[in-house]
Amino acid sequence: MNYEKLTRNFFTRNVLDVAPELLGKILVCRVEDDIFRYRITETEAYCGEEDLACHACKGRSSRTEIMYHIGGMTYVYLIYGMYWMLNFVTGQENEPQAALIRGLEGLYGPGRLTRKLQIDKSFYGEDVTVSQRMWIEDDGFKPEYKTGTRIGIEYAGEWKDKLWRFYVE
Fold first, then answer.
1. Burial degree of 70 (CB within 10 A; 0-12, 13-18, 19+)
2. I want to staple 165 with a disulfide (CB 3.0 to 4.6 A). Which of 20, 36, 118, 148 is the partner?
3. pLDDT confidence band for 3 (50 / 70 / 90)
4. Cα 56 from Cα 92, distance rounded (Å)
5. How far apart are CA 18 and CA 23, in angstroms?
6. What is the pLDDT of residues 63-81, one digit of tens each?
7. What are the CA-CA distances from residue 91 to residues 2, 64, 71, 133 (Å)?
8. Residues 28, 78, 23: CA angle, nearest 5 degrees
9. What residue numbers bound the domain in which 121 lies?
């Protein structure tokens, strides 16, 4: 089968285009001598400082700094003191946007998938367009998908109702 690694151009677009197009792509993660390959089945879009669910809504900080970089970088952060969340930065420099990876084929839940793939803080700022330990491949598969509201952002006012979660059933 012919796999094409995603390039910078894929990620430098708006998150509302990138997040649904990540569905069906293959996340590849190298852990020591093992290579894990999983098809992406669920994403969520977080769209800039105006989006009250996006970490960038509070401005630039040491935590969110990578979101202000060019698309193709990873934004990894810890929640509840125990779960690492994997996001891919999208857009242009100084346009803080990111797509959260919520599900992979056979791995449901963003904390479960990062645990399985041994993703931790060391992945913060990884450039998946050149990395040898994490990248995304496209084999041409384009699944049908649905949209829904994002999960766990009740605090975000009207932003909680945006249909910015994309998933394959």
1. middle
2. 148
3. confident
4. 14
5. 9
6. 999 999 999 999 999 998 8
7. 27, 15, 5, 22
8. 35
9. 4-167
Task: Give the C-alpha separation, 130 to 136, whole Å.
Answer: 10
pTM of the model: 0.95
User: Which 3-state string (H, E, C) describes the chain?
Assistant: CCCEECCHHHHCCCHHHHHHHHCCCEEEEEECCEEEEEEEEEEEEEECCCCCCCHHHHCCCCCCHHHHCCCCEEEEEEECCCEEEEEEECCCCCCCEEEEEEEECCEECHHHHHHHCCCCHHHCCCECCCCCCEEEEECCCCCCCEEECCCCCHHHHHHHHCCCEEECC
Count of domains in the chain?
1
Residue 12, domain CATH: 3.10.300.10
**4-5 and 146-148 as β-strands: parallel, antiparallel, unpaired?**
unpaired
Query: Cα–Cα distance between 88 and 54 in angstroms, integer?
Result: 13
Q: Which two tokens stand for residue 86?
A: 């994997």
